[in-house]
Amino acid sequence: MTLLVEWIKAALLEVQEYFIMVGKTARAAVTRPFYVRDIVEQFEIIGIGSLTVVLLTGMFTGMVLALQSGFTLDQFGARSMVGRLVSASMVKELGPVLTALMVAGRVGSGIAAELGSMMVTDQIAALRALGTDPIRKLVLPRILAGLVMVPLLTCVSVAVGLVGGWITTETQLKVASGVYWNSVVMGLYMQDVWMGLIKPFFLGFAIVSIGCHVGLRTSGGTQGVGRATTNAVVASSVAVLVVNFLVTKLLIVLMY
Amino acid sequence: MAVQREARSALLDEALGPGGPIVVFDKVSLAFDEKTILNEISFTLKTGHTKIFLGASGAGKSTILRLILGLLKPDAGMIFVNGDRIDDMTEDQMMHVRGDLGMVFQEGALFDSLTVRENVGYKLFEESKVPFADANHRVEEVLGFVGLAEFIDRQPSELSGGQRRRVAIARAMAAKPRILLYDEPTTGLDPITAITIDEEIMKLRDLEGVSSIVVTHQLRDAFYVAEHSAVQDGDRIRFDRATPDKADEAEFIMLRDGRIAFEGNATELREVAARDRYIDAFLS
Ligand SMILES: Nc1ncnc2c1ncn2[C@@H]1O[C@H](COP(=O)(O)OP(=O)(O)O)[C@@H](O)[C@H]1O
Ligand SMILES: [Mg+2]
Q1: Between chains, do B3 and A131 touch, taking CB under 8 Å as contact?
Q2: In a domain? residue B283
Q3: What is the ipTM of this complex?
Q4: How many angstroms separate the CA atoms of A143 and B60, rounded?
Q5: Would residue A251 count as lying in a domain?
Q6: Containing domain of residue B165, as a range?
Q7: If you measure from the C-alpha of residue B58 to the centroid of ligand 1, how many angstroms do you get, rounded to a whole number?
Q8: Residue A129 and residue B3: Cβ atoms within 8 Å?
Q9: Dihedral (C-alpha) B131, B132, B138, B143: value to the nearest 10 degrees?
């Protein structure tokens, strides 16, 4: 029982610290100084760095979606509708969520490892001693990059997913290109597109802010860095799914 | 420099001048998770003087330096740096105070994503309006001061332990702070390299008038720094035995169980060691 109480206390403290960090970041976003070079650098690291993995996941997800839904639709003799299913699933759910999960694995862990090792080697303390606020120098650039790059990566992922679906549809299911793309467009409602565009902002923010928080709370030497990296991936992946559910629910209430 | 200071009265400036208090601890206490690390610690560092903190591992030596930098806040007591009370300052206010503080961290804490040049010039390049050429010139100057001019474009990972410490000293001194804090600057170094570090500390103290706090448990280095002084001799710098007056400007503080177990100059420390078994054990 006391163990449970202790655990809850620790968890609440963690959440409180997280929101304090988010608050400080919000303040840093609207007051000077800005570390423009670090911001540009993070855009590149987080955006360009994640491109390959996002391209691959998007492509294969689109391909397998077409394959699976093709066989399902065959049972109803509706193979020509395959584009609809691919586009609806890619745009609304799989594009944003899978992109976010891949970014969580790649970027969330990287941030936690980098900030964590800076923490245990006193580099963060050295920054503060030299007059730099680590929130402005390290956290804000990463969060901005997450906010901008995860939506862009999601768009890329959806696009290659649709192309992947087209390739499978054309080669495996023998559906004509025109039919596929027509069906893709038919399957898309404006609300779905908005849903697909809005969600990645929240997911990107969650991934990067959790990575930063976990990294900056690291203690206990190199072992601590290892733990922080694992924790960041686990926490940000779970957060992606939870936030995705909550934002989806919210958007359904607001838009549909 | 990025640091702007409010104008003070001439009277206060004089009081804080040579021989005046520059770092003051008044009954400072701090506990981590109910474990008392510092218990009503009081001491005063005078401008241009040196304090040498001794104590077993975990005695709270690094904690004292972190308190001075405002990286930690005490549970109770007051801390003054340069005439400002800092224990209740916000992080933003602390940034101004830190303009006059340089810290050499225990393992150097160099930024491993930056070159030696960028490390040493960090504060000038990133946090000041000093023109790039001037900042760069200063970086070359301080690297020359610590004898590492040719390493300017290396990565920290390409340096030896002693070189890393010296780069850390160069980084701490680049923006010309009036107070330098050294956290075990010679721990883990061979005796020859350790002496070069000790001599950097003395050069900054005796030639640049920097007030210093040195944390160490290398007794030989502590006594060497306390009992010698750097003298400019034409182009060269000599390290002579300090006059008794000069030696008095270096004071030892030994921490034990959260309290100050000894405070005094080098001669007194040797005398006490003859009587106190703990201090003797520490010294030998
Ligand atoms: N952030 C912290 N949280 C909890 N305990 C700490 C923290 N920092 C230091 N300590 C503890 O405080 C004690 C003093 O640490 P420190 O000042 O680093 O000692 P040292 O004299 O070796 O430099 C140690 O027992 C250390 O475990
Ligand atoms: Mg220490």
Answers
A1: yes
A2: no
A3: 0.88
A4: 36
A5: yes
A6: 110-176
A7: 6
A8: no
A9: 170
Residue B270 is predicted with a pLDDT of: 84
DSSP secondary structure letter of residue A31: S
What is the distance between the terminal CA atoms of chain B, rounded to a whole angstrom?
Answer: 44
The number of domains in chain A is 1
Cβ contact A194:A251 at 8 Å? yes
Ligand 1 neighbour B59 (Cβ under 6 A): yes
Give me chain B's average pLDDT, please: 87
pLDDT at B182: 93
* Chain A residues within 8 A of B102 when measuring between CB atoms: 129
Facing B111 at nearest CB: one of A35, A123, A131: A123
- Residue A198, domain extent: 35-255
Ion ligand 2: residues, Cβ under 5 Å: B 62
Does residue A209 contact residue A143 with C-beta atoms inside 8 Å? yes
Measure CB to CB from residue B107 to each of A122, A127, A132 and give the nearest one: A122
3-state secondary structure of A183: helix
Domain presence at residue A148: yes
Contact B105 A122 (CB under 8 A): yes
Q: What's the CA gap between B190 and B87, in Å, rounded?
A: 37
pTM, two decimals, is 0.89
Q: Are B19 and B48 in contact (CB under 8 A)?
A: yes
